[in-house]
Amino acid sequence: MIQGRLVHSPVSSRKIQVFPSMRKLEEAFKTAPIISHFNPSLPTILETDASDYAMGAVLSQVSDSEKHPIAFDSHEILTSELNYEVHDKELLGILWALKIWRAFLLFISYPFKVLTHHSPL
């Protein structure tokens, strides 16, 4: 600023280039899946994935032909589990997710699906 005036105009060509990206981001926020309340009478899906250092899971349900997330969680793999084979880490992720969401899964009306990333399981 020189004597209380801006040296550069606040509007630049960069703002015009960013605008489509901002519009896309705004739409993504508007249409993103919203966490729903658990309903034991809806079809339930447990999705898990494990990497070398962590595992994650999503509990979701199908309503109106759409999948709605119920809960998300992640967990760091313990030092003693770092040397597990990939399929063992994937199975560990499934067991961990079943343990944390046991209270939900015990009361559903029919069997639930477990989806994982690793094909040998």
Automatic annotation (TrEMBL):
Location of the Reverse transcriptase/retrotransposon-derived protein RNase H-like domain: 22-111
Domain of life: Eukaryota
Short name of one Pfam family: RT_RNaseH_2
PANTHER family documented for this protein: ENZYMATIC POLYPROTEIN-RELATED (PTHR34072), RIBONUCLEASE H (PTHR34072:SF52)
Protein name per Swiss-Prot or TrEMBL: Reverse transcriptase/retrotransposon-derived protein RNase H-like domain-containing protein
Organism ancestry: Eukaryota, Fungi, Dikarya, Basidiomycota, Pucciniomycotina
